[in-house]
Write a structure and sequence with these properties.
single chain, alpha/beta, Rossmann fold, eight-stranded mixed sheet, NAD-dependent dehydratase, NAD(P)-bd_dom, NAD(P)-bd_dom_sf
Length: 211
């Protein structure tokens, strides 16, 4: 199974890549803006340097892949980046997409935590929302992942929140998010056409514990 990772130097992406490389049935293609950031993986995966807003570069990178996992930061998750990826996937004939977004794009976080989340993310939320709308309105077989505020805890402990369900968990580990993404990569029929929130059970509150 050939899998493309777009935004391959992201913190969650780096964990996912360890899972992919350890799985001998998966052939990873790692796409990022500066390829020298992944010199430690040059013997384990195909590494391609390019711009995630460039349709031609994306198309060449994902040709022959069965699934694309896009892990772009807030500034990169503009409508331009989302549309470029949708167009590239059409051109390359790839249908399955995992797209990482954030909580709050549907105004699904209630109470004081929702107010805090909106204040902290502020200008980023419209960008995430715009990008997710483009993905959801495409004909791709997408899973949008909406993690809560992420920690570096060495644990896999998460629960899922469907679109339209109130999201109350204030945190989740990056390893948990990576484990869920890897699970979908290995089980691509699951959570198709779904926007899934991820949080750690028992962490409801007004804001994450470290703030």
């Amino acid at each position: 199974m050939k899998v493309a990772v777009i935004g391959a130097n992201g913190q969650v992406a780096r964990i996912v890549e360890r899972f992919l490389i350890a799985d001998k049935d998966i052939d990873p293609v790692l796409f990022l803006r500066k390829s020298d950031r992944l010199t430690d993986l040059q013997n384990d995966a195909q590494i391609i340097e390019g711009d995630a807003r460039n349709v031609k570069e994306l198309t060449e990178a994902i040709k022959g892949c069965e699934l694309v996992y896009a892990n772009l930061n807030g500034s990169g998750q503009s409508g331009v980046a989302a549309k470029a990826l949708v167009d590239a996937m059409h051109a390359a004939g790839v249908k399955r997409l995992i797209w990482v977004s954030t909580i709050g794009i549907y105004n699904e976080v209630p109470g004081k935590f929702g107010e805090w989340n909106n204040r902290m993310l502020n200008d980023y939320l419209p960008l995430y929302h715009e990008a997710s709308d483009i993905i959801e309105n495409s004909d791709l077989e997408y899973t949008i992942v909406r993690p809560s505020w992420m920690t570096d805890k060495n644990e896999v402990d998460y629960e899922k929140f469907a679109k339209g369900q109130e999201f109350t968990d204030t945190e989740v580990s990056r390893k948990s998010v990576a484990a869920y993404i890897f699970h979908i990569i290995r089980n691509p029929q699951e959570d198709k056409f779904q926007s899934i929130g991820l949080g750690k059970p028992g962490t409801a509150g007004d804001k994450p514990s470290w703030y």
